[in-house]
Amino acid sequence: MIRVAFQTLRARWVSFLGTVVALVLGVAQVAAMGLLVTTAFDLPDRPVERFAGAGTVVRPQSDGWNPAHHDLGVRSPEAARGLSSELRDRVAATGETVVDRAFYAQLRGGPEDQVGHPWPVARFGGYRLTDGAAPASDGQVVVPSDRARTGDEVTVLTASTVRKYTVSGTVAPVGFEDAVFFSEAEAARLSPRIDSLVALGPADAVEAAVGDRAEVLTDQDRHKADASEAEDRETLDNTITLVPVMASVAGTTAVFVVASTFAFAVVQRRREVALLRAVGATPKQVRKMVRNEALLVGGLAAAVGTVLGLFGAQLLADMLISMGVSPDWFTVTPSLHWTVLAPLAAAFLVGLLVSVGGAAAAARRAGSIQPVEALREAAVDDTGVTPGRALLGAVALLGGVGWTAWIATGSPVTVLSPTVYVVSLMVPVLAAAVLAPLAVGPLARLLMWPWRRANGPTAMLVRQSALTARRRTAATAAPVLLTVGLAFSLLAATDSLGAARDSGLQNRIVSDYALAPDDTPGISIEVVDRVAEVPGVKIAAPLLTTVYWKDEDRYDENDGLVVDPEALKRTMDLKVVEGSLDDLDGNSMAVADLWHMDVGSTQTVLMADGSTQKLKVAAVYEALRGEDVAYLPPRFADTALYARDGLARRAYITLDEGTDRQAATAAIREAVEGSGATFMSRDELVASEAAYARHLNEVRQRSTAVIIMMFCFIAILNTLLMATADRRRDLAVLRTAGATPRQVLRFFVAESLLVSAIGVVLALAATAVNLAGLWGALFQLFGTTPIVVPYAVVAGVAVVSTLLALLGTVLPVGAALRARAVQLIGARE
After folding, report:
1. pLDDT one-digit tens code per residue, 673-709
2. DSSP 3-state assignment of 596?
3. Can you spell out the DSSP letters for 520-562?
């Protein structure tokens, strides 16, 4: 039967065009995404940057601390504490030693990622004075030559102050950082932590002096001390997290489209298969023929898709780079390395498995065709609902509704995990696709009801064509259903979740006004003190720090916010479920309920500066994952300089009763002028915070939606081309019955619009199930919150899908109309 399968493919290549294109696209996406993942695990060595001129670098050693398991900017306990003065003296005994400190230091108007260092360490990063001299006092700095000139007075924002410095010299800019250099004493005052040491003595002596107290880096390992190493890790983690989700969604969509198009091809060939049965072919031989066709199609498409994925992987990488997901240096290079060959081989096998698996149901259906069907004059679908189809439809319906109901009632936190929830949204959409053949009849009658009394036969023909070819109609409507349903569900879920977070933040903040960073990563303490001096103004500026809990031989870390208890109660409305914020004092803390700590218990906490504290749990409040922090008393403010950058991410402002609001707000604006902070209302703060917080979620879900839409748009076009091109007999019958070319075209266009409408209606039904589950989950998490629907975008997706369906119809019909009706009948017979 392999020869028969090959001859069938040659003779009816149009019938398999949709399957080939769908498989090529699916395999190409799997290959490209697999290449991205494996490339991320085997990256080329990045060049050493800040310590390229240093022989040996000593930095804190963090055994058991895997940076990939923590957010960017979270330091290990050893890195937060820094190197000790004792270790510095031991290393200094081996030879010349230079102390490096890295801290927030931003020129007014400069980029947010500017960093401060002591001047002596500059030479190891390739910095050379182009003008002036090194800082000779605490009031002098050296800056890049494109930022200021020697002798200029510049304002430098740091965690503790906003101070003017004199530029004593300039250096040529470098590509890996934008730095401001201070004297050693001033750098030590601004940042007490010693981040690393450059040891110029013999490497063996340095290693002996350090022992197991710290890590000694040489050669390529020195890149571990570069700031870009952590940033690269974060972006690569995002890539590795996002790509498998995109691949699973694309793969599932490909499987469904391939299965649908194979089933459609069998429906189109019922008469041919019946003729084979009439001349003696057994059901087993027919099934084998269909499976052989699947192998041939799958092998060809998998090979083409693998090659396309190899050369298209960089295009996908470029898309992720443009969205800020992957680092800008991330490249995929074709080679014979295992990181290239393994994902390509896997993608090829996936293509074969998808093809054979997608054709399995079609093969069984082909084997059940009876020889008597060869005598039928009309090529009409079997429109009866088989027990298997009814059972599958019932399972799909229960599965889609049941899964969504479980998320809404039993596991609402699922909606907060983009990687899991994206896959969950597919369940009702795929269930609707499975139910499509059962829904074609009722939907066709309903959608054609307004034209039941229309003049002319077009409306009646369109309706009856859909009703007598339900499988064909369902197969051609499936890509529209997937495109609109998945895009609608993903985009509406993203916007609704963002709106719910906005509402939750709005409810938690009770202050009327706030300070937020103004092109800076945070707000300096000096700025907070200036605002606090305004009469009638109360301000709370939580400082972000890190707290650690010992868990056997490892540490668990959590964010902490250092804030005055009275200010906390005045500005934030925490949902306290146990204890009271009134009990907060200098030796206690408030923790999230997710941490499962009892009120009144005493916890041993390691602070970022290396000190160990015993703190009593005074209150437990309700929090979502990602919003759980420990609220700490003000005496731990200094730990913020060790844990992070010592800046307040925001500040909340209230006015005493009777305060002149206009005068107070004017004084606040004057106090923060040019300080890297901006004064705003609570609503403005909520909008800005929400936009920042949901950025990565939107990138993940919207990028997945883009991949789905690109795939499904092409699937719509090729499926309609395949369906319409194979209906030359229908076109010939219309022509011989006296229909003009315009009437024939009108019939096929109207039928295409009906098919698209059926797909859109099913997509809306599936999306309604998804949004109902989303509303229930959000209600449990945030209370009453609206469902936000991006109507314009969804309408645009539906319109584009319909236009592509029309294009897939008009092109083959227009080509066929150029031939005479008699020739078309002869070619068919």
Report:
1. 888 899 988 777 766 665 544 554 555 555 556 666 6
2. coil
3. SSSB-HHHHHHHHTSTTEEEE-PEEEEEEEEETTEEEEEEEEE
